[in-house]
Amino acid sequence: MKASALAAALLVALAVFTSVAAGAPGRAQLTTVTVDTLPISNALPMTLGVQKGFFANHGIEIKTQTLQSGNDIVLALANHNGDIGYLGYVPMMIARTTGIPLTLVAASEVEGTNVTDNWQDILVKGSSSIRAPADLAGKTIAANALKGVGEVVIKAALQKAGVDPNSIKLVAIPFPSMRTALNNGQVDAIWTPEPFLSQAVNIDGDRIVMAPGPTLGNFFPNGGYAALNDWMKANPTTAKNFRLAMNESLQYAQTHPDEIRALPGGNVPHLPVWSPSIDRVQLLQLAKYAKQYGVITSLPNFTQLFPSDIRTGFASGLLEASVGKAATIKQAGKLATRLDPGSYILIVKDTSSTAGFTVTGAGVTKSTGIKAKGTFRFTVKLSSGKYKWSATGKAKGRGTFVVTK
User: Fold this and answer.
1) Which residues in the chain land under pLDDT 50?
2) Do 164 and 291 sit in the same domain of this protein?
């Protein structure tokens, strides 16, 4: 065979091989999804999920655009500048109640339980005379946007702490610029998440004076991923695949914090609790706060904002378990003894690498594992009957609770 004929044959063979490979499972052309996101650590599970191939496995290639606030992302999506946006639930509610039809595509994260484990707090300069939440009365506080998550949780938390929320002055400053604004005296305090929180504490010597989210409730909802209704209707398969890949990413990030901390911006002591499930009761309370403080004029339509395949993750209650030297499980701060049937979010704070927590019963077997450490979030459906819980490994504590109508 002549060289030219051989080359032609090789080209044909290559073309056939390429065509077959492109049609093979896992080799199909990826659909590009543009995600408008924020420069904060709690958006990192998507980055990790891309690295792990979760999105590619579901046929998606991620392209990101970084903005400075959830309100900016709402405007970008409304102008079709991006397909899906990572933003707080409050901007989603604002959008819904002002005629911008956003729908939740996937959940993301919640806040912690106290100042020690939370990732989004109010800080002041180390030399500030502000020592307690009461001292914030009459002060100027920076949030990344007005009429957003920050304004709602700051005002609601201050009111719960006995401080007049109308006494403070809020100013909008992007997260990356907040440290400078605080250090040069432009503001008295800043409300900021990781990684800026740790930078302010460790580099600038700033102090945390309040954790608004945990003041309102343990594991208070913060944000997720949303898109316009018309994009969802035009791309139902892509939306579903994004949700599946995002859910895998959230679950993986929650159980592999070291891999999150290895990412740029992730080497921080306080990480969010990531989970694909959302708590309807707390989200409704957040909406009521937003209405109370004039951020929205009416409550959003929850059925439209949170579609059925997301709402299946809703919990009717919250159970909080812990394991260290001993184990316990509580509801509303009291030892769980009798519970109503239904779906619950079970949060387990495991502080020991030699012990784990296990709960078993009708249709439920959940465990953190003995060597695992961190905060674990499960959705469990409890039916009538007796459930057993216990520490495993080198820890004490065991008991039962009864589920009955």
Assistant:
1) 1-27
2) no
